[in-house]
Amino acid sequence: MHPFAYTRAFDTRDALDAARRGGRYLAGGTTLVDLMREGVERPDTLVDISNLPLDDIRATERGGLRIGALVTMAQAAAHPKVRTLYPVISQALELSASAQLRNMATIGGNIMQRTRCTYFRDVTAACNKRDLGSGCAARDGFNRSHALLGTSRTCVATHPSDVAVAFAALDASVHLLGPDDERVLGFADFLLPPGTTPQREQALLPGELITAVEIPALPRPLESGYLKVRDRQSYEFALTSAAVALHVRGGIIREAKVAAGGVGTVPWRLPAVEDHLIGERPSGALWEAAANKAADGARPLAHNTFKVELLKRTVERQLRTVGGHA
């Protein structure tokens, strides 16, 4: 492991000052420390932010929910308001990792985690995320687990977070604190597809700190849930996943929010699926027809063509689960 300095911040100003001098934030450490061991990440300074007052969950004045960046995955999944109002979040968190990891990893760290692409984590392989211009070994290598939506010539790696898929579906926003000001980014603008800059994965400015993720007030009643399809039932990353939230009133779908994981370079909203649902009456035929649009725009690789059909079936199954008429 590359030598590094360690400092602990006891308030946000300390953290921002240390980051301004080149420090990297450390909370649960479940991703960053692994990458440091593997030689992928080589920060000179770690800034421990685990003592900052960013670990609360509270209702907002407008009826939404604000989850502090240092709330652990386990705490968020078990919180009564999360479980009652947004079961899609609880389910995504509980399917994300082992109990030990959920007790350590934070919400802010989870959405910041980097890809599990084996070529990214192999420092001998070509990877534009690690070394821009070196190439993407996954494109011509074994790419069964890789993305088919949002890819570019520079990168085809999937985003690994489950709860990020739920946040994307719910139109969440990310609250940021920087050296000069606070700002709020919509979740769709926070995580960046690779394009020509795959090394830049989030829209963070230098030294910015995630303080919270906020879910807006959504119409009620709202039924939601998360489905994850993987190679094994024990701890594993998604081949495909679907986060679904439906607002049905008077027998008509008034709002539909659908996002997919395991198939995109970022959590992937499915507007074609949503548009097909809104204004319709729930039915088995509707779920099937809408899900058939889930893979619109997909660009499969040599070994992940199966994900096209698997994505459609995953979305259809979760629409049936959340919306009924199975």
UniProtKB/TrEMBL annotation:
Keywords linked to the UniProt accession: Oxidoreductase
Documented EC number(s): 1.17.1.4
Name of the protein in question: Xanthine dehydrogenase YagS FAD-binding subunit
Source organism of the structure: Streptomyces griseoviridis
Enzyme class per UniProt: oxidoreductase
Domain spans labelled FAD-binding PCMH-type: 1-220
Annotated GO MF terms: xanthine dehydrogenase activity
InterPro entries: CO_DH_flav_C, CO_DH_flav_C_dom_sf, Diverse_Substr_Oxidored, FAD-bd_PCMH, FAD-bd_PCMH-like_sf, FAD-bd_PCMH_sub1, FAD-bd_PCMH_sub2, Mopterin_DH_FAD-bd
